[in-house]
Design brief:
The protein is α+β, with helices and mostly antiparallel strands. The protein has helices at 25-39, 133-146, 157-174; strands spanning 46-48, 58-61, 64-66, 72-74, 78-86, 92-98, 106-112, 115-120, 126-131. It has three helices and nine strands. A hairpin with a 5-residue loop joins β8 (115-120) and β9 (126-131). The structure holds zinc ion (ZN).
Length: 176
């Protein structure tokens, strides 16, 4: 079942999500909903549970691949449960990010270039990876959601000023 997205200004986006204790049929059904929701949007490359009103440490992602004809397609969706990010590199990188919960908005976000992650898959197995490039970025963006953190919290002071009115309007638009 496709679930509705919560938008910027919704208090649910600010909660610190709870760990998944056990992979139950209920968890499997939530994950299936999250994947279905992601696949229903052409431009979605990831959703955290908190963006769909679910208070659990789960996110789903799908990485983009460029086909030979220069078209964009996607890899198989991946399920990330109880992620733990460690060892952020001292090197930082700036990238423009958007968020499905803040439609039409983009800003520069500075994050570590590489980071280590440990997480569970849908079978409950623990997996460890050293993340680089765009994959590292996706994990850090979605993991932020599980801690109630949004890209607007990571904007530069200059951007905060610049986008203040736009963000105020967005909050009004979705929560009037
Ligand atoms: Zn987001």
């Amino acid at each position: 079942m496709k679930r509705p997205i919560t938008y910027y200004g919704d208090p649910g986006l600010r909660v610190k999500a709870k760990p998944v204790e056990k992979i139950t049929p209920e968890i499997e059904s939530i994950v299936a909903d999250m994947i279905e929701t992601m696949l229903s949007y052409d431009n979605a490359i990831g959703f955290a549970a908190t963006q769909l009103g679910i208070d659990l440490r789960i996110f789903v992602i799908r990485e983009e691949i460029e086909t030979s004809k220069g078209k964009i397609s996607f890899k198989e969706p991946e399920v990330i449960i109880n992620p733990i990010l460690t060892n952020p590199s001292p090197e930082m990188e700036s990238m423009v990010e958007g968020c499905m919960s803040i439609p039409g908005f983009q800003c520069e976000v500075v994050r570590p270039s590489t980071i280590h992650v440990k997480y569970q898959n849908l079978k409950g197995q623990w997996i460890e990876e050293d993340l680089t490039d765009f994959r590292a970025r996706m994990f850090m963006h979605e993991n932020d959601h599980l801690n109630g953190v949004l890209i607007v919290d990571r904007m530069t002071a200059k951007d905060k000023k610049k986008f203040d009115a736009i963000l105020k309007n967005l909050r009004k638009k979705y929560h009037s």
